[in-house]
Amino acid sequence: MPSLWDNLCQLMLPVCLLVGEWDEKFVSLAKKMDERLPNSQVKQVKQSGHAIHVEQAQIFGIIVMNTIKQTGGKTNDSRMDK
Known about the structure:
Oligomer: single chain
Distance between the termini: 29 Å
Largest sheet: 2 strands, parallel
Strand order of the largest sheet: 1-2
C-alpha cells in the first residue's frame, strides 16, 4: 500500500487524533499527522495506552460525542448520508 502522508494536507474534514499517553509510537505519529492535516486536533488521554476505548471507555465516549457535536456530525462523504 502506498504512503498517503503527502495527501493529508488535502483532507479538509475535521480530524480528531485520539491517543493514549502511554502509547509513545502513536503519540508521535499523531503529532506528525497533526502538522500535516489542516483541520485537526490531537487529544491525549491520560492513564491509557493503545486501547483507549477499553482502558478509559467513559473518557473515550465523551471525546467522541463532543467531537461529533462540534462538527455537526458532517462527513462530506455521500456514503455516510444513507
